[in-house]
Structures
1.
Amino acid sequence: MSITGQCACGDIKVEIPRPTEMCFCHCTQCRRTGGAVASANFVVPTEKVILSGHTPKTFHDTGTSGKPVIRYFCHKCGSPIYANAEAVPGVLFVRSGLFDPGQIPKPTSHLFTKNFESWETAFPGAATQETEEF
C-alpha cells in the first residue's frame, strides 16, 4: 500500500510506500532549508519514490560528511520535497509534511540531538544520535 502527498501548491506529487518510521533531523542545514528546528523525514529507497507533476528545483549542499547533498524543492511554492545525500546511497529523505494528517507514523529517531534547543526532548521511545555523517 502506498500514500501520496504533494507540495503546498500541488504542482509536485510524491507517492511512497506507507511508512512505518519517521526520522527528525536536527542538523543545521535541515533546520535552515526547512525553516524549523528539525526536518521530519521518511527514509525511502530511491526506486520506491514516484514523482509526478513539475520537476523539482535543486539546491546543491554539502553534508556533515563533506559529501554532496542535493535538496529538491518546488519551483513555484518552495516546499521542500526530499533530499539525496551521497553519504547515504540508495535512499531519499522525503519530507513527511507533504502527506495528509493520519498518514504519518510517530517519530522513531532523532538525528543531531546535539543541536536540540534547551526546551526540546526526543519523542518517547525514539532512538537518538548526537551526530551523523550525511
2.
Amino acid sequence: MKLFYIFIFVNIFWNTSCQVKQCPVVLDLVMILDSSGSIKPVEFDQIKKSLIRIFDSLDVKDQELYAALINFSDKLTVSQFYVPNDEYKFLLQNKIASMPYFGRSTSLESALKHARTQLFATDKGALTPKVVILFTDGIPNENLDQIRFETDQLKSDNVHLFVIGYGENLHHEALDVIASEPLDIYKLNVNEIKFLKEKINDITISTCSSQVFH
C-alpha cells in the first residue's frame, strides 16, 4: 500500500514540476538604434557590428521569434522580421548591416511610442516575453517627462527595457528613466553588450523554458 502512495506522489510531482511552458513565439524583440547627430558615424557602425555578432548565436530551434529594427534621429525607419528558424537570422543581420546613419536631431519619444503602439500592439501570445534593446546616448530633443511617459507605458505592459549607452556624452538621467529596474541588469555600456545574450536568455528561460542564444 505504501508503494502505491509513493507512486502517486512521484507521478504528481513529476507532472507538475516538469511541465514545459508552451511559448510558440519565444521572444518579441525590438531593437532601437539612435543615429542622430550626437552619435558619430563610426560609433553607429560599431554598434551595428556588435548586434550582428550577437545574432551569430541565435538558436530558436523549433520556436518562433519576432524581431523589429528601428533606426531613428528626427525621423525613423522600421523593419520587421519573422524568424521561424535559425536560417532566417542572416536576413536580420543583412538588414542591420545596411541601416544608414541619419545624423540631425533626436526624437527618442517617437521611436519608443512607435515600438509601444505599433510593434507590441499585436498579441503574439500571453507568455511571449517582450524586450526592447535601445542603443542611445540618451540626449533627447523632447522633454524628459515625455520620454518617461512612453517608458512607463511600456513597463506597465511588461516590456523589458534594456538601454545601452553609447557615444561621447551620455545623458545618464535619461538612461536611468528609460531602463527597467534593477539598473545593474538593464542599463549597460558598450563594453557590456556581450552580456545581452545571457540576460535575454534569463528572461526567455524563466518565461518559456527556452533560450534563444547559445
3.
Amino acid sequence: MFEPIRFNGPPVMNQSSADILRQPAEIAPAVQAFVAAVNDGSLPDVINAFLSDAIVNDQLVEYEGHHAIGVWARNDLLAQRTRMSVIRCRTRPTGVVLTVEMTGDFDGLGLPEPLVLSCYFSLSDRKIDQLIILRKDL
C-alpha cells in the first residue's frame, strides 16, 4: 500500500505541481507525481509515474507500455498545455479515483464547459499500473 499525502489550502492557479490540488485530499505519491508532471509539462516525469507495462485508457482508446503512454502524454496532454485541477479524491483499496477539471489549449468544440473527467488509477509497486479516463457528466 502507499502512504497518502495530504494537501491543504485553497487552489493556487498559475503555479506548478501539487499547488493546484484542492483540499482535503489524500493522493498516492505516484498519482501526485503524475498530476504534477502533467501540470509542469514534464514528459519524463509523466512516464516515470507508470510501471513499464502500464495501460492507459483515455476515452476508450488504449495505450500500453512506456512508449505508447509517452506518445499519448506528449500529443494529448503536454502539447495541449493541459492543466489538471483536482476537484475530488477518493481512495480505494487498490488505487485512487480523481475527479479533475481539465484546461488547456485543446479544441473544446463539442466539449462541456468546464471539462470534468474521472481518472481511475490502479497502483502496484508504488507506480501507476492502469489509468482509465472518462468524461464525467455533471
